[in-house]
Every structure is written in C-alpha cells, then in structure tokens.
Amino acid sequence: MKKKVFLPTLMFFLLPGFNSPAQSADPEHVINTDEKQVLDTVLSMTRAFENRDIEGVLSHYDHDAVIAFTPGTATSGAGEIREQFLQFFAINPAFDYGGHKVFVTDDTALHIAPWTMQGTAPDGIQINEKGLSVSVLKRMNGNVWRIIVDDPYGGLLAQ
Q1: In sequence order, what DSSP letters do the residues of the chain get, joined into one string?
Q2: How far apart are CA 78 and CA 61, in angstroms?
Q3: pLDDT value of residue 16
Q4: Domain extents in the chain
Q5: 157/106 Cα distance (integer angstroms)
Q6: Architecture of domain 9-158
Q7: SnoaL-like domain location, by residue (predicted)?
Q8: Which of 12, 48, 99, 126 is 20 to 30 Å apart from 21, CA to CA?
Q9: What is the reported pLDDT for 26?
Q10: Which residues does the chain have with pLDDT short of 50?
Q11: What is the pTM of this model?
C-alpha cells in the first residue's frame, strides 16, 4: 500500500540522477558562477538533510523563509520549520532529479527541479512521491545564497 506524504524541497536535490553539480537541464546552457553557487547551496542543503543534520539544513534557509511542506500551505517561523524537517528524517528518503534549472538576476535566483522520492514510513509502508521543486534564493552577506521560498509542489498548478 502506498502512503501519500508531502516533503519539503530539500528532498528533491539528491544526486543519483545528477551527473555534476554544475550541470543544467539544458545541455546547450553553460552554467555560470552564480548559477553554480545557487545549485551548490541547494545540493549542500540536501546532503545535510540526508545526514539528518538539522542545523546544516536550517543554515541554508533565511530566517524569514517560507516553505510549503504540504501543497498550498505556507510554513514559516524557525520553530515550526525545524519541527517539520525533523519529522521527515524518519522516512529515510532517497531522491532522484530529472535535471536542474537555475535563473539568476542580481541577488535573486530561481531554482527548478523535477524530483522523485522513495522512502519508508516508520510503520514500514513504502512511500513514492514525485513533484516539481520551485525555490527562490537570495544572495546575502556578499556571496552567501539562502533559500527564502521553497515549494516542492510547484507543478501542481499545471495539473
């Protein structure tokens, strides 16, 4: 029996389907330095998530971040965001991406990535999900990118 679980964007960034941290969904596009830094930020957050490193995960988000842990619902506030991420650690998720697209203008970036996720709920039920992650990042303190808006269900509007 499949169980439907909604997961935050960080889950859509695992590397099995991703050949290089500087790869783009468009094979003709040569990724620039800003785009690579944005992508590296997202992938670093994902590694922290996979390692169940809550402080590492949270360090990639702005203190005013908004995250859609469930479709159509915005979660904000450090305590609530922390609690939501900690709950997801229990399912042992494995992610794969169909590519990454990054757009940067000045100090703002948009990251888009289709994802699939497999995991196991604490009761042993297999979980299989897919979606389209849409995230907005902001460059802060010179050259540090932080996620400010995170919606792993951006593709639902197209359905």
Answers
A1: --------GGGGG-STT-S-TT--SSTTPPP-HHHHHHHHHHHHHHHHHHTT-HHHHHTTEEEEEEEEEETTEEEESHHHHHHHHHHHGGG--EEEES--EEEEETTEEEEEEEEEEEEE-TTS-EEEEEEEEEEEEEEETTTEEEEEEEETBGGGGG-
A2: 10
A3: 33
A4: 9-158
A5: 27
A6: Roll (3.10)
A7: 45-127
A8: 126
A9: 55
A10: 1-23
A11: 0.80
Token pair in block for residue 140: 């802060």
Cα distance between residue 69 and residue 30, in whole Å: 32
Strand duo 144-151 + 61-70: pairing = parallel
d(CA 32, CA 62) in angstroms, rounded, equals 23
Q: For tokens 């593709």, what's the residue?
A: 155
Gyration radius of the chain's alpha carbons: 15
